[in-house]
């Protein structure tokens, strides 16, 4: 397996470290495999574990939602590709789905360490539930970390992808608890003169620094 030098900490805005690794679908190189898509890269402590099984199944169930957003899911578990193939049979059976996205085989923990997924207070040999949203420029746009005992909220994962993509497309920010179709915020860096061009439909000014607007 080829990969970049170990990274101690990854921050929003960093280029996601590239790696070449085996999956149950064959070898992939992250950057080449991602292409022009976004990536939802998420880790799991181990195969054949209950919370992970539901999360893998939920990701497979949401395949159309990810595709509609030009997002490729990529799982990681600290087991082998052969073990992944056996586990996927359980995932498909218990979660009533068909899992096709790749799951990184990381039995030697090299990718988990590269992405700082090993938290010793949780386990020395299994990854915590990390989330990295990576954009088509291969930059990390969002990170989330859950403890091993807590399953992810996939509604939130889709929500933040929507927020990031809308922010890129329309130069806006999103307020607390924002949902698709709701008002967004015009950042203070955009002055009213420019805002009138970007948002000719007009906006509501709650304060000079807090302007909200509906966008398509």
Structural class: alpha+beta
Shape: elongated
Radius of gyration: 19 Å
Q: How far apart, in Å, are the first and last alpha carbons? A: 44 Å
Write a brief caption for the model.
The chain has 7 helices and 10 strands. It has helices at 30-34, 50-61, 63-68, 81-95, 110-114, 154-170, 192-198, and strands at residues 20-21, 28-29, 38-44, 71-77, 103-105, 129-134, 140-146, 184-186, 204-207, 210-213. The chain is elongated and about 60 Å long.
How does the SSE layout of this entry go?
Elements: E1 20-21, E2 28-29, H1 30-34, E3 38-44, H2 50-61, H3 63-68, E4 71-77, H4 81-95, E5 103-105, H5 110-114, E6 129-134, E7 140-146, H6 154-170, E8 184-186, H7 192-198, E9 204-207, E10 210-213
Parallel strand pairs: 3-4, 4-5
Antiparallel strand pairs: 1-2, 3-6, 6-7, 8-10, 9-10
Helix pairs in contact: 2-4
Description of the structure:
It is a single chain. This protein starts with 19 loop residues before the first strand and ends with a strand. Helix 2 (50-61) crosses helix 4 (81-95). Helix content is 31%, strand content 21%. It is an alpha+beta fold and 216 residues long. The longest helix has 17 residues, at 154-170. The protein is built from seven helices and ten strands.
């Amino acid at each position: 397996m080829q990969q970049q030098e170990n990274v101690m900490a990854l921050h929003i805005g960093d280029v996601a470290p590239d790696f070449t690794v085996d999956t149950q679908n064959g070898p992939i190189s992250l950057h080449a495999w991602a292409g022009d898509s976004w990536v939802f890269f998420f880790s799991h402590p181990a195969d054949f574990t209950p919370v992970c099984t539901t999360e893998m199944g939920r990701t497979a169930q949401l395949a159309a939602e990810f595709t509609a957003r030009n997002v490729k899911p990529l799982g990681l578990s600290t087991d082998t590709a052969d073990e992944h193939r056996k586990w996927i049979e359980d995932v498909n059976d218990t979660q009533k789905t068909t899992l096709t996205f790749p799951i990184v085989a990381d039995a030697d923990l090299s990718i988990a360490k590269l992405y700082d997924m090993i938290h010793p207070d949780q386990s020395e040999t299994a990854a915590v539930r990390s989330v990295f949203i990576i954009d088509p420029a291969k930059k990390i746009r969002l990170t989330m970390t859950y403890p091993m005992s807590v399953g992810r909220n996939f509604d939130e994962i889709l929500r933040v992808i929507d927020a990031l993509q809308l922010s890129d497309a329309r130069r806006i920010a999103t307020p607390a608890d924002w949902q698709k179709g709701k008002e967004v915020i015009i950042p203070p860096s955009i002055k009213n003169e420019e805002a009138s061009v970007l948002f000719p439909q007009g906006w509501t000014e709650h304060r000079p620094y807090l302007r909200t607007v509906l966008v398509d």
